[in-house]
Amino acid sequence: MNLPSMQFRRYAYAGLLATCVLVSAYAADPAAPVHIQKELSPAYPAGSGSFRWLSLKIYDAQLWIGDKGYNGDAPGANKFALDLRYARNLQGRKIAEASRDEMQKLGIATTQQGAEWQSKMEQIFPDVHDGTHLTGIYLPHAGARFYLDGKAIGEIADPAFALAFFAIWLDPRTSAPQLRTALLAGAAPRE
After folding, report:
1. In degrees, to the nearest 5, what angle opens at C-alpha 146 toward C-alphas 141 and 150?
2. Which of 28, 64, 118, 127 is most buried, taking the most CB atoms under 10 A from its CB?
């Protein structure tokens, strides 16, 4: 099919422009929220996914890492952030209870630890609604810090708690293995 040269140039230009836009969109990392950038500086998105229960979307999750990537609970573990954007209304007390249950299912928390940690989480975790962001910052060998929509709301200074809490999403035995895979998709160190 012969297209007039002017029309051909328009199609070629449009195709080149679309390619440039797509390449730049995939090459650039989205900017981290201010509170995450402050904690990790620089912060890079490692991966993201959604958590569903009985086909209902509960939240979207995004893992943010620094230059050294994610190395979990390994000696010298790196700081990272896990941001949850809720898709429905939930009570903070229920979030704390579900977190305790998941830690115990993984065999990481004893019954006594679970009860103590649940009490601490209940003091920090607020009720959430569609669009609320809860962010947890893993503080290596120190504990975890939490933010509500970018504002600090509390900290639990217990390294064992931090390991158990973030294991809910990142441990190989998690009850949401597809979400774990999505979160860790780009968790390698940055060069």
Report:
1. 135
2. 64
CA distance 124 to 119: 9
CA distance 174 to 55: 18
How many structural domains comprise the chain?
2
Contact 65, 126 (CB under 8 A): no
Structure tokens belonging to residue 77: 């573990």
Spatial distance between the Cα atoms of 143 and 122, rounded to a whole number of angstroms: 16
Tell me: do 40 and 25 sit in the same domain.
Answer: no
**pLDDT tens, residue by residue, 53-102:** 888 999 999 999 998 888 876 656 899 999 999 999 999 999 999 999 99
Q: Exposed, middle or buried by CB within 10 Å (0-12, 13-18, 19+), for 52?
A: middle
* pLDDT tens figures, 102-161: 999 999 989 999 999 999 999 999 999 999 999 999 999 999 999 999 999 999 999 999
Nearest to 134 by CA among 66, 60, 40: 60
The position carrying tokens 């860790």 is 184
76 token code pair = 């010298």
DSSP code for 134: E
**Integer Cα distance of 142 and 25 in angstroms:** 36
d(CA 139, CA 39): 10
